[in-house]
């Protein structure tokens, strides 16, 4: 255990952009920022975790959506990268309106809205109890926000990546299409590779495997139960070395 009965003291939470839209839709849904912010503030008040967040931008645009079109793929990826900044501003506003100290950092400099990402500065913010929101992925095209989450978690010394999704964890098949799909409570990195399970993109997953960064995939509806997860209780799917 790390401290205060916590198994994971410094946590990186990955939130997909689709969590900020209306169900099954595109665009921005401000009540979603509000709901997630309230849950995260409640979790922070109940324990002493250090919380970093990486956001996706899929509710606005994913670069790969322009595949099979004449649109330049690099430009499309940069547009998707900027979409994560929009989500970051929305979540930051909701968090700070309810009294949570935050810092938003971007991999692409835009000083009018956020700090540029500097590893040591990010670590210091976490040590001071601020919620740190990482946006703009890794700052380059062709890398997903999963890769950004893996990289930032490793760089800033996080103990675990918590990936919030619309399902309860990692299944043997899509549970929305196959009612007999099996929910895994634990997988090793090698098992996940052998079974072809798409937990993260290949680059992100390879980083986590190499650095032995555990990943917990869980339902976003259980955000208010992160307390239980960081204390080591089983929820969703744990992917680890053994």
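Q: What amino acid sequence fits the structure above?
A:
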């Amino acid at each position: 255990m790390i401290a205060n009965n916590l198994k994971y003291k410094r946590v990186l939470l990955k939130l997909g952009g689709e969590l900020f839209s209306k169900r099954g839709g595109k665009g921005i849904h401000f009540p979603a920022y509000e709901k997630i912010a309230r849950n995260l503030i409640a979790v922070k008040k109940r324990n002493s975790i250090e919380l970093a967040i990486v956001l996706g931008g899929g509710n606005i645009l994913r670069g790969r959506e322009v595949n099979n079109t004449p649109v330049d793929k690099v430009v499309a990826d940069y547009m998707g990268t900027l979409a994560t900044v929009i989500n970051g501003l929305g979540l930051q506003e909701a968090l700070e309106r309810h009294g949570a100290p935050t810092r938003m950092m971007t991999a692409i400099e835009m000083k009018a809205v956020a700090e540029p990402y500097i590893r040591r500065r990010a670590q210091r913010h976490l040590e001071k109890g601020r919620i740190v929101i990482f946006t703009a992925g890794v700052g380059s095209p062709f890398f997903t926000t999963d890769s950004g989450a893996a990289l930032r978690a490793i760089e800033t010394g996080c103990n675990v990546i918590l990936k919030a999704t619309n399902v309860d964890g990692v299944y043997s098949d899509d549970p929305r299409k196959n009612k007999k799909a099996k929910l895994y409570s634990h997988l090793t990195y090698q098992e996940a590779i052998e079974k072809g399970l798409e937990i993260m993109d290949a680059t992100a997953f390879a980083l986590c495997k190499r650095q032995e960064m555990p990943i917990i995939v869980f339902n976003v509806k259980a955000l208010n139960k992160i307390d239980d997860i960081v204390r080591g209780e089983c929820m969703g799917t744990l992917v680890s070395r053994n």
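Q: And what stands out in the fold?
A: The CA atoms of residues 151 and 175 lie 29 Å apart.
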